[in-house]
Amino acid sequence: MDRHVSSKQRFTEFRKNPPPPEGAPSAESRGKGLPPLAKPEDRRRYRRDYVRWLKPYRWSLAVLFSLSLVVALLEAVWPLAIRGIGNLLTADLTPAEKVRNLNFFGLAMVVILVFKQIIDSLRDYRIAVLNAKVLFRLRGSLFDKLLSLPLSELGDMKSGGIASRLSGDVDNVSGLVQQAIISPGVAAIRLIIMAGFLLWMTWRLAIPAAAMLTPLAIVSFLWFRRVRPIYRSIREDRTSIDGRATETFGGIRVVRAFRREAHERHDYALGHHTVIRKSLWASILEMMLDIGWGLLLPGTIVLIVWLGGYLFLQGKAEVGDIMAIQLYAMLTIQPVWQIVSSFSQTQRSMAAMERIFAVLEMAPDKPDVVGAVDAPQQLKEFTFENVGFEYRTGVPVIQDFNLNVKGG
Question: Mean pLDDT across the chain, nearest whole number?
Fold first, then answer.
């Protein structure tokens, strides 16, 4: 690492030369023992592997989706109570009848919201349990695989890279079930239900709301594709930093013997400063998108009230209809944003998931040949005849080794 290059200069160079397409190694990962980014076909295979990995939990996922469907239906019902209360304002009823209806709608809304919250909390707890089970199994399988890998592969990963996979990568995958499967699936269910209620109430207000929402959703997906390579680069940098720190303290006697403390401190700070700059840049890009969504919600409400006022004056809508449509519009925007947001969060977890499954696909060290038989329990004699051994192909460590060991 060049000590004369600042983190600002490194970040400027990163901006000028953005991360390469998926499947090509970045300049920062070359020579650091880091794997190249997964190719598109590899990424698809890793996703299929992850889905197969979740197969034992399919019934838990079915229960979660069922609970989510109940929550979505309850969420879609309570705005009807608001509609009933609003329509009471202009209804041709006696004051006593209005009070009776008002109490009915109010109590119904409270019961629905309380029941919805209970089901929602139960669903969240079951998601946490499922995540814990998946992570425990994934971390155990990764640990077993690392124990069986060739020493050359483990040497390339370095101790910091191994620790990064077992801790950071697995932790980053922790929310993948929620972000990539449950959250967008539930959001899609909610979106269909809310859009159906919105169209049922009045298509005249539903269409303008959809016209504002659709372009922003498309731009959001395209925008997040621009942010994803930044998070991949950040992950590479952190793996390199962790590996370098592990090596530093593993060889601390050498570092102190050669008075390298200041050099190591500078390199560590430089790496972290670069990561911070990249993280802030990614946050700025996401913040720009958040601003658009932040303006969409109040803008949609203003549009509905504005157009709803014209419809009310023309006798084509009632006050309660306008109030309920505002709520349905907000409840329709929320799942769309949830889908877009989960897509963004999934990008951060996908890189870690790919790194984990790339390790799980590695061949173990010196597997048995086809047709190999187990050694007998009681050996009378053990003989090595002209044995050769090498860690790396073409670099022999032992040649023509001969040894005869008597049993016992």
Answer: 77
